[in-house]
Amino acid sequence: MRSTSHTIRTRTTRPAARQAARAAAAALCAGALALSLTACGGDGNDNDGSSKESGTPTGSTVSLPKLNGQSLEVAAVWTGGEQKNFKKVLAEFEKRTGAKVTFVPAQDPIINFLGSKIAGGQPPDVALLPQPGAIKQAVDKGWAKPLGSAAQEQLKKNYSPGWQDIGKVDGKQYGAYYKAANKSLIWYNAKVFENAGAKEPKTWKDLLGTAQTVYDSGVTPFSVGGADGWTLTDWFENVYLSQAGPDKYDQLAQHKIKWTDPSVKQALTTLAQIWGKKDYLAGGPNGALQTEFPASVTQTFTGGDQPKAGMVFEGDFAQVNIGETKAKVGTDAKVFPFPAVGAGSPVVTGGDAAVVLKDSKAAQALVTFLASPDAATIQAKLGGYLSPNKNVPLSAYPNEVQRTIAKALIASGDDFRFDMSDQAPQAFGGTPGKGEWKDLQDFLKNPKDVAGTQAKLEKDAAAAYGSGS
């Protein structure tokens, strides 16, 4: 399961360099996660659900056509709670339009999945793509269709320019980002921290100290879902962004600097301070490599005050998996921003964009609905979901932790960096058992081999960027 995971500045039209000067503001917004809802100032939304910018009540209903008798298929890689909750959004679309919508479970990499469907003459009408690189590929292959005027109108009303831009290819709008993720969070078992006398860390040095405190109390510090390579790329990206800075981050994302660069060596060496301590990882490196993301979360919040680990790193969507345990978010399960490795805490985001593959009235209507506050508000109320739609009322989110995360995302405007691996060609940054996913899994297994890991990353990146695949 790749949760929004979980974006391509050189492979989409989104400028990269223009955001470099905004890193400080983004870091400040990350800090809001550990503070109150008033941190980071206003987000343009009042608690009554109205938007100061557009003046449009977020409870208003988007205009949708009647589609009685029409059928649609929607493909996404979501599983478990995410899939279940999204189906409730689709049910509302069915109720409003009379269309019949079928959810089609997809596998990573979704482009390969869609390719097989299209080759067989059965493409879904709409697909939720977790990488801008995948949007670009879908456009290049002639699969994706530009969004219609109604969908674009919803995007302009409800999304910041940055979130609109990452759904564009060559200036045309192909994607509507329905789901976002704040991927700069560490969740922790509150009882474990209380028993250990551990405090929420602000810096990487503090995190190492907190880990030792948890370890000394008899609990393994970290749960790592290493069976899913994307979780490891997220670890790297947060360390790299904070340590090397936004300019280097953008350059590496575009492969304008090599993975053999000293900044990559520094980040890997830093990561090894945790990955290299087998007693710090639940099950050790081998156990981590056999643990999928959902289990990495649930094993942190089951077992009372003696879980398999005290902390787990990942995005806000981890709440879906926490919800599968008896732990209550905000009480039993708490969260802090990824600690500052360099000058400030990183803000790394991810997202899933709705893309039309069959240019029909029904497909365009569904994406229009997904770009509206109506659809996002439904899923926000169900938890474990974050929307980049600025007109979703904060009151829709079910707990203060989620409201704080949502407010920080909206307040940051365009001051964020999208997931680096999602910006890469899929062969490097988005394929299980290949490229960056595999190279970092190998590094988790042998974190002493920094130079060898850099060489493998560069070889795989050069091949993927050279072919554009």
Provide key terms for this protein.
single chain; 469 residues; alpha/beta; D-Maltodextrin-Binding Protein, domain 2; 2 domains; six-stranded mixed beta sheet; four-stranded mixed beta sheet; 21 helices; globular; SBP; transport; signal
The level 1 CATH classification of the largest domain is Alpha Beta
**Domain unit count:** 2
Low-confidence stretches: 1-59
Beta fraction? 5-15%
Structure description:
Strands 1, 2, 3, 6, 11 and 12 form a six-stranded mixed β-sheet that branches. Strands 8-9-7-10 form a four-stranded mixed β-sheet. Helix 2 links the parallel strand 1 and strand 2. Mean pLDDT is 87; it is low at 1-59. The longest helix has 18 residues, at 80-97. It has 21 helices and twelve strands. Helix 9 packs across helix 20 (435-445). The chain is α/β, with parallel strands linked by helices and 469 residues long. It folds into two domains: 17-182 and 356-418, 3-Layer(aba) Sandwich (D-Maltodextrin-Binding Protein, domain 2), CATH 3.40.190; 185-337, Periplasmic binding protein-like II (D-Maltodextrin-Binding Protein, domain 2). The radius of gyration is 21 Å and the shape is globular.
Helix and strand arrangement:
Layout: H1 23-31, E1 71-76, H2 80-97, E2 100-105, H3 110-119, E3 126-129, H4 132-140, H5 149-158, H6 161-165, E4 168-169, E5 172-173, E6 175-182, E7 185-189, H7 190-196, H8 204-216, E8 222-223, H9 229-244, H10 246-253, H11 262-275, H12 284-289, H13 293-298, E9 311-313, H14 318-322, E10 333-337, E11 348-356, H15 361-370, H16 373-382, H17 400-411, E12 417-418, H18 420-423, H19 426-429, H20 435-445, H21 450-467
Parallel strand pairs: 1-2, 1-3, 8-9, 11-12
Antiparallel strand pairs: 3-11, 4-5, 6-11, 7-9, 7-10
Helix pairs in contact: 2-16, 5-15, 9-10, 9-11, 9-20, 20-21
Region (Disordered): 45-65
Signal peptide: 1-41
Biased composition (Polar residues): 52-65
